[in-house]
From TrEMBL:
It comes from the Bacteria. SUPFAM superfamilies: Thioredoxin-like. PROSITE patterns: PROKAR_LIPOPROTEIN. Residues 1-20 form the signal peptide. This is Thioredoxin domain-containing protein. Keywords: Signal.
Length: 127
């Protein structure tokens, strides 16, 4: 009897999870939305500073994907040999990677989900 109760409970939970998953909006952005967001960020005067050797910078780039990331106003802060910072990043006072800089001068640090960047920048995700 206990096995039947467990089986029915498991079945009910599975049905609930499957129905909830099928009703929800797909998570994440498709490539077209990523490109639109990247263009919006750049058009809004938002810049990204990073370094090629920075794992978190790579994670941020991967969230956009290659097709969309090309539209990000990105400044490489590392010299090619990875041992020093470029003059532009020194002048800008960049001390952490990745650094997002908004047109109003506000800076945020670290990897940001695309949804958060969209919200913070006023990007309409319903497009």
């Amino acid at each position: 009897m206990n096995n039947k109760i467990l089986a029915v409970g498991f079945l009910m939970i599975t049905i609930f999870l499957l129905s909830a998953a099928s009703c929800s909006k797909p998570a994440g952005f498709d490539t077209e939305q990523k490109v639109a967001l990247a263009k919006h960020l750049t058009d809004s005067g938002i810049k990204l500073y990073g370094a090629f050797w920075c794992g978190h910078c790579g994670d941020q780039k991967n969230l956009f994907g290659e097709e969309a990331f090309q539209y990000i106003d990105y400044t490489e802060c590392s010299t090619p040999d990875g041992t020093a910072q470029t003059e532009v990043c020194i002048e800008e006072g960049i001390t952490s990677y990745p650094t997002w800089e908004f047109a109003n001068g506000e800076r945020i640090f670290g990897v940001y989900p695309l949804k958060e960047l969209a919200e913070k920048s006023g990007f309409n995700t319903d497009k």
